[in-house]
Amino acid sequence: MKLTHTYKIFLKSVIILTLLFSITPSSAQKLTTIKGKVIDAKTKEPLPFVNIVFVGKNIGTVTDFKGEFFLETQWASNKVEAAYTGFKSDVKTITIGKTNTLKFELESESVRIEEVVIKSKRKRYRNKNNPAVELIKKVVANKNNNRMESLDYYEYDKYEKIQFDLNNITEKFRKKRVFKNYQFIFNYVDTSEINGKPYLPVFLQETLSKVYFRKSPKSQKEYIKGTKMIGSKEYIDSEGTNMMIDYLYQDIRLYDNNITLLTNQFVSPLSNISPIIYKFRIIDTVEVNNRSCINLAFQPRNKLDFAFLGNMYITNDDKYAVIKVEMGVANDINLNFVNDLKITQEFDYLNNECWALTKDELIIDFNIGKKGAGMFGRRSVIYDNYIFNKKREEHIYAGIEKTIKAENYDKKDDEFWEQNRLTQLSKQEANIYTMVDSVQNIPAFKRTMDILMLLVAGYWNFNKINVGPVNTFYSFNDIEGFRLRFGGRTSPKFSKKFQLDGYLLYGFKDEKFKYSLSGIYSLNKKDLKENPKHTISAVYQVEALICPLFF
């Protein structure tokens, strides 16, 4: 009887989520949609990473690997501009409140670029005698000279922001009766810079720290001075949000041959084998941070490869250093519940000694479906006050702990943050502290977050126990026939340092029970969800040696 009741609650919740996040807006909702494609006027080839913006508005998106774009917003203007470095911008007039299909054909700005494009039209892409390939080879050859890890010692201040936003906040969602007395929360809705989706911030965490590096014996220590968080602890402790935070904490080391992202190994555009994996094209010479740079576009040869597409800006001198990179991934790559992502990194030559990372940003669009409920996760890091080749006392580098927290690091007052932030909060970010406390107590918001976490993590929260994953309760294969499976695990409310996980299942064809029990323990006495992790685990399992045909 209890199981039937829980199942009914689950079905009702899914229906509620579908109703809340149905985004099939009518013209009465005054949403403006633009979609279409951008191509090179001469070669007719699609242009990826073209900026598509509403003129006079801070709202836009970029084209994907196929040169296609889609943007829906209620803050549109009647003109849309397509802009791409090395090409003449184009502006088209649209109808506000309607769906507009556009096609941009951009023309090259200079004769030199036109000549390169014309040549590529007659001949297929080749590495031989290709100036872009020669350029990237020089960048790769100078990697060790341009990365900080070549130094014996360095240290810097680090300011990090982690933010989560509930996305697809549509006009229909706003007009729900449950929000009648809470319309003020929608004053905090903003539009994403990566795909134009409206979003509502629900969590913000700031961390200020000092990092020390020693080359030999290798040691890197992060001393956390302060952490400030606003958001529902209930959801941040959940497995779904914990998983998304783990993804955001993956360092993007551009100069490495491979970059681990979303549990996958991507080939870096600066890999030793990048000319085999990527196509490169010189776009133009531009100014970036008062330095003359070569804008080098790159994209995978095979759009199904785990590789990036975007633009990097390389110093126009004999150092061949990357000063900025903006990149994402092709839509053809299957990243499960990740719909989109954008990586931005900036570097500067400091103290006439070394190129150093000064800004690092990763934005991920986590979504169950392209038009369903989801979340933006973003990690933005500012690095400053670098000191190179200065050795500190041995105790600074000693010990196995990579992260050391100061006493009362999570109890710093507003004055501390005002004085020590490496960059000021934007007006929208500052408002999050005011807004989140209010919005998280609204029943409709809590219900939406509950269901979203269920769909992302696959578990239903019952205080100290999480039941799931719900998508494995019922399955089928040829050996076991119909499989009924029931499992769960302990939640952080049971223990933050220890977790038990198990399940029991029955196959109706082989008429056998199978089961599993596992445990994981934090060796450094820290929270299991805290980065970096040092854990030990054990598992005992009796299971059929077969992979289910489907779940």
Name some characteristics of this structure.
about 550 residues, Immunoglobulin-like, alpha+beta, single chain, disordered N terminus, 7-stranded antiparallel β-sheet
Structure report:
The protein has 551 residues and is of the alpha+beta class. It has helices spanning 2-20, 111-122, 131-141, 143-146, 171-174, 233-236, 239-248, 274-277, 394-397, 414-420, 427-439, 443-457; strands at 32-40, 51-54, 60-62, 68-73, 79-83, 90-93, 99-106, 153-167, 190-191, 198-214, 219-231, 258-261, 264-267, 278-288, 291-300, 309-315, 322-328, 338-350, 354-367, 374-388, 403-405, 460-462, 465-467, 474-477, 481-490, 498-507, 512-522, 535-542. The protein has 3 domains: 31-106, Immunoglobulin-like (Sandwich); 146-443, no CATH class; 459-542, no CATH class. Strands 8, 9, 10, 11, 14, 15, 16, 17, 18, 19, 20 and 21 form a 12-stranded mixed beta sheet that branches.
Give me a quick take on this structure.
The protein is 19% helix and 40% strand.
Mean pLDDT: 81
Uncertain runs are: 1-29, 111-122, 547-551
Summed up, the helix count is: 12
Tally of individual domains: 3
**Structural class, from helix and strand content?**
alpha+beta
SSE layout:
Layout: H1 2-20, E1 32-40, E2 51-54, E3 60-62, E4 68-73, E5 79-83, E6 90-93, E7 99-106, H2 111-122, H3 131-141, H4 143-146, E8 153-167, H5 171-174, E9 190-191, E10 198-214, E11 219-231, H6 233-236, H7 239-248, E12 258-261, E13 264-267, H8 274-277, E14 278-288, E15 291-300, E16 309-315, E17 322-328, E18 338-350, E19 354-367, E20 374-388, H9 394-397, E21 403-405, H10 414-420, H11 427-439, H12 443-457, E22 460-462, E23 465-467, E24 474-477, E25 481-490, E26 498-507, E27 512-522, E28 535-542
Parallel strand pairs: 1-7, 11-21
Antiparallel strand pairs: 1-4, 2-3, 2-5, 5-6, 8-10, 8-20, 9-10, 10-11, 12-13, 14-15, 15-16, 16-17, 17-18, 18-19, 19-20, 22-23, 23-25, 24-25, 25-26, 26-27, 27-28
Helix pairs in contact: 1-12, 7-12
